[in-house]
Amino acid sequence: MLLLAGACALMIVDLLSKDERRRLSFWFAQAILALCFLATLYVIAESAGTRHVIFHGMFVSDLLSHVLKLFGYVAVSAALVYSRQYLLDRGLLRGEFLTLLLFALLGVMVMASANSFITLYLGLELLSLCLYALVALNRDAAASTEAAMKYFVLGALASGLLLYGMSMIYGATGSLLLPEVAARAGALAAGSESARTLLVFGLVFVVAGLAFKLGVVPFHMWIPDVYQGASTAVTLVIGTAPKIAAFAMALRLLVNGLPGLAVDWQQMLIVLAVLSMAIGNITAIAQSNLKRMLAYSTIAHMGFMLLGLLSGVVGGNDLNAVDAYGAAMFYTTVYVLMSLGAFGVLLLASRQGFECEQLEDMKGMNRRDPWVAFLMLLMMFSLAGVPPLAGFYAKFAVISAVVQAGQIWLAVAAVVFSLVGAFYYLRVVKLMYFDDPAADLAPAGGGGARVLLSVNGLALLAIGILPQGLMELCQVAIRSL
Amino acid sequence: MNAPLLSLAIWLPIGTALLVLAAGGDRRAPLQRWLALAGALAGFLVTLPLYAGFDAASAQMQFVELAPWIAQFNVNYHLGVDGISVLFVILNSFITVLVVIAGWSVIGTRVGQYYASFLMLSGVMNGVFSALDAVLFYVFFEATLIPMFIIIGVWGGPNRVYAAVKFFLYTLAGSLLMLVALLYLYGKSGNSFAVLDWHKLPLSLTAQQWLFFGFLLAFAVKVPMWPVHTWLPDAHVEAPTGGSVVLAAIMLKLGAYGFIRFSLPILPDASRELAWLMIGLSLIAVVYIGLVALVQTDLKKLIAYSSVAHMGFVTLGFFVFNAWGVEGALVQMISHGFVSAALFLCVGVLYDRMHTRIIADYGGVVNTMPRFASLMMLFAMANCGLPATSGFVGEFMVILGAMQANFWLAFAAATTLVFGAAYTLWMVKRVVFGAVANDHVAALKDLEPRELVVLGLLAAAVLAMGVYPLPLTEVMHASVDELLRHVAQPKL
Questions:
Q1: For an engineered disulfide with A138, which of A144, A440, B284, B315 has Cβ 3.0 to 4.6 Å away?
Q2: What are phi and psi of B491, to 5 degrees?
Q3: Nearest to A419 among B172, B183, B184 (CB)
Q4: Given this model, what pLDDT does residue A13 score?
Q5: Tell me: the pLDDT tens digits for B253-274?
Q6: DSSP 3-state assignment of A448?
Q7: Rounded distance, CA A305 to CA A385, Å?
Q8: Band of residue A353 on the pLDDT scale cut at 50, 70, 90
Q9: What is the mean pLDDT of chain B?
Q10: Using the beta-carbon criterion (under 8 Å), do B143 and A467 form an inter-chain contact?
Q11: CA–CA separation, B415 vs B398, rounded Å?
């Protein structure tokens, strides 16, 4: 597995020399991704579901990590296709972009396979540093610089919190390896009161750091600014692959590392999840910038995903675990697909000298380009969770897990906030279909991006009609945990 | 006989819708119209064997199709109809044909999208009526929102966006709580979404009552019952004629059908326990909304409120728990499907010529449009329940059912005959009769052949049902008996 990651890095170094020939490096990056994808597939076939631990137990190679990696490759590859024209128009498609992107992906991969606090932290920092740089990539834009600054300061703070929490847990358990931490923390938590206090303190910091990275309330402040400030191509990147990483991190840290404290972190996650859904959905209504609106929608969606994570273990009984974590994973995957598509539409609609990012810009999309409008309609209804689109089954699976965990009120809250959420997604549809175009903008071009966008949108519909395959994949992956 | 008729009834219109969309933009409008008509007709034709091959003596589900769909949640693609739902599948497919014809020359912009929306809606609603798996039901139930939202929002009147969003959010609010209820039942029943299994599931009274409210909100919004009916007048007023027709004729029935398929058989004890509430709300709809209808100045609003009142009659019939009441309510649903469709089409005919729906702008239409006037008179009479029209049969049966339960109940329900007659006939008097009100009315042209066909078909249906309702009641009889037997048994 690491071999793969190494290969990835090596080839990136190669890329650096080809800075001038953008077209070539673009395809080269795509080829790397395809290669990694195939290699991961090969590893899956080879390992046949067994679990390998390498590097003195720092790194785990199981089905879950493989599947997450596959999603990661697809997400980044799609992101590249979507943003190509946009970046070319703005002269941003440079070696740095591709390199940083692939390194960020490498961070995601490391996190997906992390089996100790150190590896996890390493992956996280690799990802975060690349993202800070990506946000600042458009050096001349004040908004980008400001966003990068905010992102960096807050992100560093979050990393600090996370490290602090990890060190406390290390102090209590004497190990950095997640399985050992899990075993000792469980025993300690059941034992003396003082050890438990220390662990819970550590946990609070870990969860806070995690919440920062996930971008859930009350640690969400950076998301809207970064989403809005970064150029849309970078926002697309931030909105997709890192979500997979954040999910992996939450799963590894909390479920793998600290199952003994499930009762404690479940309570924290409930607060985070409900607050995120409430504030994310309600604030999104007031936004006039589409990117900012999608940022708040991300916050709400991550809150929803947490619901799945927190309903896995009920009273020490983890019968529900596969369903619940599988639901959360399914949710993350579907969210990444929807987010890809939504930002993809924005990128497609943007042209040289014109940024499509205000809600107003969607006006009359149906007149200008019925097919893209239809795809955006699919994304929006899917984000709102209306059947028969994939977003509905994601919500359905999570709410089902919550109900099975006996948290009916939580389910009702989730449902009420998704209703609030439906309002602003509907507004986008309304603008596209019911309003007349504000300016006479010719339909956007972009051959490859257009085709991929169609595939993306129709995939949401296909998953909506036959959700079984992806759900099963998620559950099988979770079982390997 | 082994053809998957229900699947065809669902997917044939949806498939045609995709074809229509694929046919291209407005330049291909004539082709799209004919395609849509062919799809709608085909969809209607495949439902006819459903009636012909239906075994009326049996209360079992028929034409069952069962295939695994989402194995993780034990969700199946499970279709089937009993004597109740089969009628709605046919009604829906029939109305779709009429809607396609009615929009023929009226809709000039984005024709393909218009027809595709209606065909999809039709297929999805057939799905709601024939789904026997709760998730499948929910998916279809919700999927009706998207096409309707677009129909109202794109081809609607001046205030269409407000109406479309209100419609969408009201219905979504109701049905999301139903989703929680469905998931709770899924857990209770040992991981099954089969609606028929749920019918046998024992549940405590408290659980039943909570679930009842979960379902109530979803279905009450759709029916719509007082006090969550306020989206309906807005939606009707703004929707294009075809949208209003489908909304009144079929979509409102989805809610009432939900009561029959979910609330009553799954939660019989809570239903009996809370019948007072349901009857109370129904009577408010019948009496109060009847009065509200009286003062409307807008034709469509008047008919919309009249729909709410008539649907109040339907829910009243369900919750008196006897054969007269339930069968009457079902007949009323079908009849209302024809009559409200016809009345909205009549308004559409007038609106296409005059571009106003305000009652005061009309007067003396009979002088210039005699054929139209006579048809409209017939539908108006059916709306107020004149004997020999379909409206009479249902209302009479429900009142008989109410009489068996309680005299005063029947008395209050019967006031609808007075109010219904009052607001309908007064409206007809102001619009159709009297001297020619203004130059615009004087210039009106009578019905075109296309309009005559649509209204004529509906008139024939209304009269046939009024004179000889047996073919309808015969089909539903066994199923209704079974339902009532089921509701009478406690399952605590």
A1: A144
A2: -130, 40
A3: B172
A4: 56
A5: 888 888 888 888 888 888 888 8
A6: helix
A7: 13
A8: low
A9: 83
A10: no
A11: 13
Residue B236 CB burial class (10 angstroms; 0-12, 13-18, ≥19): buried
pLDDT of residue B1: 47
- Among the partner-chain residues B69, B70, B168, the one whose CB lies closest to the CB of A426 is B168
pLDDT, tens digit, for every residue of A333-346?
Answer: 888 888 888 888 88
- What is the ipTM score, two decimals? 0.77
pLDDT of A180 over the 70 cut: yes
Burial class (CB in 10 A: 0-12, 13-18, 19+), A65: buried
Give dist(CA B385, CA B439) in Å, integer. Answer: 34
Chain A residues touching B142 at Cβ < 8 A: 386-387, 392
Smallest CA–CA distance from A323 into chain B, residue: B72
Per-residue pLDDT, averaged over B94-119, amounts to 82
Q: Residue B364: which residues within 8 A CB-CB, separation 6 or more?
A: B432, B433, B434, B435, B436, B437, B441
- pLDDT at position A10 is 54
Alpha carbon distance B91, A72 (integer Å): 49
Contact B73 A429 (CB under 8 A): no
CB-based contact A40:A76 (threshold 8 Å): no
E runs forming strands in A78-118? none
Taking the C-alpha atoms of residue B99 and residue B243, their distance in angstroms, rounded to an integer, is: 8
Find chain A residues with C-beta within 8 A of B187's C-beta: 403-404
Identify which of B73, B153, B160 has the shortest CB distance to residue A400.
Answer: B73
The residue of chain A nearest to residue B71, with distances taken between CA atoms, is: A468
Q: How confident is the model at residue A15 (pLDDT cuts 50, 70, 90)?
A: low
Beta pairing, strands A52-54 & B75-81 = unpaired
pLDDT for A439: 62
Q: Which of residues 356-385 of A touch B (CB under 8 A)?
A: 370, 381
Q: Which DSSP category does A255 fall into?
A: I
pLDDT at A190 over 80: no
Residues of A in contact with B165 (CB under 8 A): 423, 426-427, 430
Give residues with Cβ within 8 angstroms of B262, minimum separation 6.
Answer: B195, B215, B219
**Residue listed under structure tokens 């991300």:** A298
Q: What is the 3-state secondary structure (H, E, C) of B49-68?
A: HHHHCCCCCCCCCEEEEEEE
pLDDT digits (tens, 9 = 90+) for B32-66: 788 888 888 888 888 888 788 878 777 777 887 88
**Distance, C-alpha A130 to centroid of its chain:** 15
Report residue B233 CA to chain centroid gap: 15
pLDDT at residue B477 is higher than 70: yes
Question: What are the tens digits of pLDDT across the range B284-305?
Answer: 888 888 888 888 888 888 888 8
**DSSP output for A376-444:** HHHHHHHHHT-TTSHHHHHHHHHHHHHHHTT-HHHHHHHHHHHHHHHHHHHHHHHHHHHSPPSS--PPP
pLDDT of A49: 62
Among B145, B165, B186, whose Cβ lies nearest the Cβ of A386?
B145
| Predicted confidence (pLDDT) at residue A401 exceeds the cutoff of 80 | yes
A83 within 8 A of A236, measured Cβ to Cβ? yes
Rg (CA), chain A: 21
Cβ A412–B69 below 8 Å, yes or no? no
Do the beta carbons of residue A281 and residue A383 sit within 8 Å?
A: no
Is the backbone peptide bond immediately before A242 cis, with ω within 30 degrees of 0? Answer: no
Question: How far is A429 from A451, CA to CA, in rounded Å?
Answer: 21
The Cα–Cα gap between B140 and B143 comes to 5
| pLDDT > 70 fraction of chain A, expressed in percent and rounded | 86
